[in-house]
């Protein structure tokens, strides 16, 4: 099921529930009911709850967006570092150069084809990926430069391997969901309270009031969906964040 379909169903469901409750509730209201009799304190409480919940939603969206941006920056750094290793090793002897490039490509293929799906499912990296990156490091560190030109390329290659290792560590740290379960509990309960309080304002069955009630509930559903979508720093599918690898390498 695509994310757009899930979003559409969630917004339609939230809007439908609110409108259905509003219409059914209005049918049970007597003719002597006066909507102007809503106490001022209820209006004040509804406004305050809406403001506080909007602030919480804004902080949650900012948090998951920042986490996703940092995670994807780390992916780009890892892919770029490995690309630099593959290019700068051109200065080495043909045998060492080809072996290092083959090991770099083997690591990238494993990351995209094997490690990434597991990372999305379990939030953990694979031991095989660590072994393949260690093999790349071994290729670079074990080589003995033959002249000044190769010696000048040696340290930058080590630095790029270290940068790739650091980026991999950051990827492992960011592999899990950003939002804790207790925060999700607060967001969902807050949404129910915020939507539930609009019924205390004695909404009538006029088209304008029903439209506003439906749009309000649909907006909250959209914002919660947005947080859920950004809650996975690397997306929900392999192709969501592996672009830096597939652009720089033929996987």
From TrEMBL:
The chain crosses the membrane at residues 6-24, 44-65, 182-203, 210-228. Keywords: Membrane, Transmembrane, Transmembrane helix. Pfam families: Bestrophin-like (PF14023). This is Membrane protein.
